[in-house]
Amino acid sequence: MRKNINQIDLFSEQNKSNQSKNILTAIDVGSDKIVCFIAKIEEITREKRGIRILGSGYCQSKGIRNGKIIDQKEAEKSIRLALDKAENDANIEIENVHLCISGDFVKSHVLKGSLNITDRTISQEHVNDLISLTNQKYSQTNQQVIHIVPSKFFVDGTRNVTDPSGLVADKLGVELNYITSNINPLMNIENIIKRMHLNIVGFVAKPYASGLACLRDHELDFGSVCIDIGCGTTSIAIFFENTIVYAKTINLGGWYITNDIALGLHTSFEYAEGIKNLYGNTIMGANDSEQYYEIPNHTENINRTKFKLSNLISIIKYRYEEILEKVDEIIEMSGYSEYAKRNIVLTGGTSELPGSIEIAQKVFETNIRIGTPSKVSGLSEEIGGPSFSSCSGILMHCLKKSNKNHKNISSDNTKKIGNFLKNIMGKNF
User: Of 49, 64, 343, 429, which one has the fewest beta carbons inside 10 Å?
Assistant: First the structure.
């Protein structure tokens, strides 16, 4: 392992040795568990590449709450344990990592700009000027840019133009979507990774990662929303025309359901979590009001109390509905609800609660499905569920970047645009 930490470009000239190996390491720093995947980019055909898992590791997350480090030592122990398990499983010692981050400090910002084309033919200079002018509007100094979604160009009102250079037009427009994070949470994670003598290749926002992992091609194209309901947070990512157009994370998730159970049944948080996992449901059955279960106690000397299953379901249902209703409000305020509600996909560990689909259908009044990370090969049943979506999404993000370089599909003008954006916006573009 290297003894310094730098944010580097995985596909830069200085890192060709790692590129040739095509080895990727993804770490999802969650509030409930830490997940680490070590994977390899493989040639499927001459035109197609894919991701295969070489090793995996996960463990309970400690020292992390709602995506933020609250205890550095405990958080480091958790990350080290997951990483060690993955390295042993893959029989590889890694140096570079991609990190998935979540929390309400991850936000989406859309900047729009336009330029009149006086000589009626769009040149490369026009494109550069427009992007530069639009980028100047971004002035949030306390934010670090995680992703700048590839720009959408508009030519005389026609949207999603890939390369406007050379086209005859009166007006050129652009839309840039920034996904950012508060600087402080990232620095706290960076400090931990630094002590582990690893290089941070880059950060990936959880909403974006989960969407890449779970959404199908037609959902990405025609419009969709991926809702990742974790333990501490719920992430919302809206996709349209094969790109993310909106992202947001809220501090609501499965832990809040567990806390409600603990309060409602007068038991500890730990016992409430176990009760949720064993008997949790969001749909009331015909005989649930007649079913009783014992609540564990700390000591056998105390008489065990009982709870009615219908009461448990009511507690879970109320909070689950609240989470989804809050998500619905966010979707409506995003400005992209028309596209988002064409396809709604739930993922994350809390989405596995029985009855999740039914209660989501009630809230959103549309078809719902549970999303799993199906685009990565080598996932066993143990690590192929919804709670592992975001870690798989990190790998899909890396594959997309790699494919752009591998296929060399960009025109010269598009390359110039990309280089220009990197110069003014940094290497995270």
Answer: 49
Amino acid making up residue 368: I
> Which of 315, 306, 325 has the alpha carbon at shortest distance from 259?
315
pLDDT score recorded for residue 218? 93
Fold for the domain defined by 107-179: Dna Ligase; domain 1 (3.30.1490)
| Secondary structure of residue 174 in the 3-state scheme | strand
Which position has the token pair 């220009």? 420
Residue whose C-alpha is closest to residue 248's, from 234, 236, 231, 230: 236
pTM above 0.90, yes or no: no
Q: Which DSSP letter does residue 303 get?
A: P
Distance CA 211, CA 207 (A): 6
Q: Which helix (H) or strand (E) holds 280?
A: none
Of the candidates 179, 41, 42, the one whose C-alpha atom is nearest the C-alpha of residue 100 is 179
SS3 label, residue 319: helix
Q: What pLDDT, in 10s, does the model give residues 340-398?
A: 999 999 999 999 999 999 999 999 999 899 999 989 999 999 999 999 999 999 999 99
Q: Show contacts of 126-130: CB within 8 Å, 24+ apart.
A: 126/164, 126/165, 126/172, 127/153, 127/164, 127/165, 127/172, 127/413, 127/417, 127/420, 128/417, 128/420, 130/172, 130/173, 130/174
The torsion defined by the Cα of 155, 158, 162 and 164, in degrees rounded to 10, comes to: -20
Q: What residue has token string 């992007």?
A: 131
Sheet bearing 368-370, strands edge to edge: 158-161, 143-155, 171-182, 106-116, 243-250, 234-240, 224-229, 344-347, 368-370
Multiple choice CATH, 255-316, 2.60.120.280, 3.40.50.2000, 3.30.420.340, 3.30.420.40:
3.30.420.40
Strand partners, 403: none
Q: How many beta carbons lie within 10 A of that of residue 80, not counting itself?
A: 16
Rounded to whole angstroms, the Cα distance separating 162 from 410 reads: 10
The span from the CA of 116 to the CA of 360, in Å, is: 45
